[in-house]
Structure formats: C-alpha cells, structure tokens
Write a structure and sequence with these properties.
Layout: E1 19-21, E2 28-30, E3 32-35, E4 48-49, E5 52-55, E6 58-61, E7 65-66, E8 70-74, H1 76-85, H2 87-103, H3 122-136, H4 140-143, H5 145-152, E9 164-170, E10 177-179, E11 182-186, E12 192-196, E13 199-202, E14 205-213
Antiparallel strand pairs: 1-2, 3-8, 4-7, 5-6, 9-14, 10-13, 11-12, 12-14, 13-14
Length: 221
C-alpha cells in the first residue's frame, strides 16, 4: 500500500518551527501556531500542553508549557483564514455552552437533550473545527483534497468525505487533550470502528471529526 502522506510530513514534529507543506494549502512555507480549538474559545493563557510519547510500551510526558494547545500545521495565510472568518463563531458557541453549564448548577434549566439550548452558527463553527483538523493531520489534505479546496476557497457549500461526520459533546472535565488521526472503536452495543481525524477536549466541549469504517469479516474454511 502506497504512503499517502505529503512529502516532508513523514515523522515531522508539528510542535517545531520550520519549512514544510501547509496542512491546508500544501505550499511549503514557515509554519505558524494553529491553536485547536481556537484561542477565542479559551485555549490560551493557563491552558498547558505537553507532548505525549510511547516508546517500548512506556508512556512519557514532556515539559508542560502554558499558552494553550497548538501545532505548527498551517501557514500564516491559512491560519488567518480561520482566525478572521470562523474562530469567533466557535468562541461564541463555547462561551454560550460554558454559561449554560455553570447556570445549571444554580438554576433549573432544560437538560441538554438532544442538545443544549444555546445559539450556534453551525456552518462557521464546523469550518473552524475542520481547518483545525488539517492543522493537526497534514496527510488529510492528500486524503481529502476536495474538502481542503472547499475550505481554502471559502465556498458556501463544503462536501464532507463519504462516511465522515463531525461530532461534538459537552465536556465538563478540566483536563485537556489534542490528538491527530487515530483508530477507535465502540465496544458498548453494536461494535463500530472509526477513523478519528481529530480529538480536541477543552471545557466546555469535546470535538472530533471521524468516519465509520466498514467491518471486515474474516472468511472461515
């Protein structure tokens, strides 16, 4: 099976500065800090991050740095694309969720079923999240070139890859996490396998674009 990762991204440390292909446009430029979720959603200041590595089945955590969760996965132009057009909507949504969560401790508010009763601009919020997805996993630009173009050109309609969906959930814990692409599966109820393209956990919300993978049945006999 051929390697579909863009040249220059194999083994790249997205926390380090340097020249490499942008995760969204593909142009080789100096990469900038892309905060995922965006800074206006509270991902800054006292939020600390550290690189987690597993070697010989031993998990280690690097030095914690304040300033939020970020990766150098976008060039300045693509980073500004999200910041100028979409991140504010995500920040407003996160603040509304946070207000709702805090008020529920003192007031009898409607339950978040099926979703919290807050205002949201779904198209803008989704674009903010998806651009962050390309910042954390550059190979997605090769896997989903049409989606990358739709976002880069600011088209009014974006086409999600077949089987892909964007999931969000209330996240009340104080621990944060940012992870790029990995495999996941559901063990409760019907067994489901997923390719997770991004996992971002920052109160009050958790986000994760993913795609369900077809089950592979083994032949017997």
């Amino acid at each position: 099976m051929s390697d579909k990762r863009p040249p220059g991204t194999l083994g790249a440390d997205l926390r380090k500065p340097g020249l490499r292909p942008c995760g969204l446009c593909g142009v080789v430029r100096e990469m900038t800090k892309a905060h995922v979720p965006p800074q206006v959603a509270g991902n800054r200041g006292k939020v600390t991050s550290a690189t987690v590595r597993v070697h010989n089945n031993v998990r280690t955590t690097g030095r914690r740095d304040a300033g939020g969760m970020w990766m150098r996965g976008l060039c300045g132009d693509c980073n500004s694309l999200a910041g100028l057009n979409y991140d504010r909507a995500y920040g407003d949504f996160a603040k509304a969720l946070d207000t709702y969560q805090r008020a529920r401790s003192f007031l009898h508010l409607p339950r978040a079923d099926p979703a919290p009763p807050v205002r949201v601009a779904p198209g803008l919020v989704a674009r903010s999240i998806l651009i962050g997805m390309f910042a954390t996993t550059p190979q997605l630009r090769v896997m989903f070139p049409g989606l990358a173009v739709d976002l880069r050109e600011r088209r009014s309609h974006i086409a999600m890859p077949d089987g892909a969906s964007l999931r969000m959930a209330l996240y009340p814990l104080r621990w944060t996490r940012l992870a790029s692409m990995f495999n996941n599966y559901q063990v409760l109820g019907r067994r489901l396998h997923y390719n997770v393209f991004l996992r971002g956990l920052l109160p009050p919300a958790g986000l994760g674009p993913d795609a369900q993978r077809p089950r592979i049945r083994r032949a017997h006999g």
